[in-house]
Write a structure and sequence with these properties.
Layout: E1 11-17, H1 21-32, E2 37-40, H2 49-52, E3 56-57, H3 66-84, E4 89-98, H4 101-112, E5 120-121, H5 124-130, E6 139-149, H6 151-164, E7 169-171, E8 176-180, E9 183-186, E10 189-198, H7 209-213, E11 218-229, E12 238-240, H8 242-245, H9 249-252, H10 258-267, H11 269-273, E13 279-282, E14 288-291, H12 306-319, E15 325-348, E16 351-358, H13 361-378
Parallel strand pairs: 1-2, 1-10, 2-7, 4-12, 10-16
Antiparallel strand pairs: 3-6, 4-6, 5-6, 8-9, 9-10, 11-14, 11-15, 13-14, 15-16
Flavin-adenine dinucleotide binds near residues 22, 41, 54 and 224.
Length: about 375
């Protein structure tokens, strides 16, 4: 393991704590303003939510209003930055299988909102041609906005590009222990800075624990899997289905979603209680990432409940007609969950804390990073 570089004695404009997507997005936003930036990351590189997610940059389904706008803007930034940073966009768009008539009502209501612009229902012949791998249902809602990156490698590539092409200094394997501007104290010495942006992800206990406690966030644990279909096929866009219409705020908060939610609470109560819904995305080798579940008990247990995996796999086979699959990887992920989808505040002059508290940082991180940099510059 290579040890991170010696700490510079220069005074940075901004020190960012945390090398997840929110930290990297903040660093990028600061660089675009011509500021000098350092990122301090506790691990050799991020191993948390930012690399454990689907890499699914989702627009349709995000909470209506400001958060949907964040996702749309962040999607545009991903599209601009990905080729520069050598990050491949694996696929674009989203197909939502409507398994029941109640889901069609939600999709039709969604299409009438401003969020439905450029989205549409596929025709029967398009369904046969474009999504032959979906089981028969009541129809398919198509959204063109989404894109998918392989987070497992994309976050490291983004950090590398920020360092090599944009001049950001990275101090990895370095833990920030306190912020007392102009000093940022770390496990390897002191960095000096005008501003500090703390992007701790789900670590609500190391820095500013009292401030972060005001979010009343609970740690949500998710089950995830990688599977390899025995018969190769190409996924043309990410896939979701009825349980997602009932879960994602942009759909679920529409009044027309009530009948679907009530129905699913009745006929898929086990899945609903476990927070299971289906997202399917594909990697370059043809494997699929499938998930997920949501345990809001705040326990962050290290033990994976395989019964939850079974619920996800069963749902996968209800939605996708692709035959047998081999499960090749299992993992858990954690994110902070609160009523508000993001938390940002300035606890003192020149310092800002930001965390995505709605499990959507891959989709909204670039916009959120810009907000954090604007806030920290205002806070001086
Ligand atoms: C299983 C799973 C699936 C998900 N799927 C999606 C998805 O498909 N689409 C989507 O939009 N969102 C998804 N999310 C949510 C998304 O991944 C998160 O919202 C996002 O990654 C949060 O990024 P972050 O930078 O805030 O946090 P993190 O990725 O947790 O990064 C925080 C970093 O800060 C570092 N750090 C913390 N404290 C210190 C300190 N004191 N000193 C130094 N370093 C420190 C940590 O080591 C860590 O690297 C998913 C989340 C999970 C768990």
């Amino acid at each position: 393991m290579t040890i991170s570089k010696i700490l510079s004695d220069k005074t940075y404009d901004v020190v960012v704590v945390g090398g997840g997507i929110v930290g990297l997005a903040s660093a990028y936003a600061a660089i675009k303003k011509g500021l000098s930036v350092a990122v301090v990351e506790r691990q050799s590189q991020n191993k948390d939510a930012s690399v454990r997610n689907f890499g699914f940059v989702t627009v349709s389904g995000q909470r209506r209003g400001e958060h949907w706008q964040r996702a749309m803007h962040s999607r545009n930034v991903w599209a601009e930055v990905a080729p520069k940073a050598g990050i491949q966009v694996e696929h674009r768009g989203l197909h939502m299988l409507m398994q029941r008539p109640e889901a069609v009502d939600v999709a039709e209501a969604f299409l009438k909102t401003e969020m439905g612009k450029d989205c549409r229902l596929l025709t029967p012949s398009e369904i046969n041609e474009v999504v032959p791998y979906l089981k028969k249902g009541e129809g398919v809602l198509y959204s063109p906005h989404e894109l998918r990156v392989e987070s497992n490698t994309a976050i490291a590539k983004l950090a590398h590009w920020l360092e090599q092409a944009q001049g950001v200094d990275f101090y990895n394997q370095t833990t920030v222990t306190s912020v007392e501007l102009p000093k940022v104290r770390t496990s390897r010495g002191v960095l000096k800075t005008e501003h500090c942006v703390v992007c701790p992800g789900a670590d609500f206990t190391s820095l500013y624990p009292d401030v972060l406690a005001t979010t009343k966030a609970k740690m949500c644990t998710l089950n995830m899997m990688r599977v390899m279909p025995k018969q190769a096929f190409k996924l043309n866009a990410a896939v979701m289905s009825d349980l997602s219409f009932a879960r994602y705020d942009g759909f679920a908060q529409l009044p027309e979603a009530e009948p679907l939610k009530n129905l699913l609470d009745d006929i898929q109560s086990v899945e609903r209680q476990a927070g299971v819904h289906l997202i399917v995305v594909q990697s370059a080798d043809g494997s699929l990432i499938i998930g997920d579940s949501h345990d809001y008990s705040d326990r962050e247990l290290p033990f994976r409940d395989t019964r939850i995996d079974d619920l996800i796999i069963n749902e996968f086979h209800r939605v996708m007609g692709v035959g047998e699959i081999d499960i090749t990887q299992h993992w858990l992920g954690v994110y902070p969950s609160a009523n508000e989808v993001v938390f940002k505040t300035s606890p003192e002059k020149g310092v800002v804390i930001g965390s995505v508290t709605g499990g959507t940082g891959a989709s909204t991180g670039f916009a959120f990073g810009e907000e954090l940099i604007d806030l920290v510059l205002e806070s001086k």
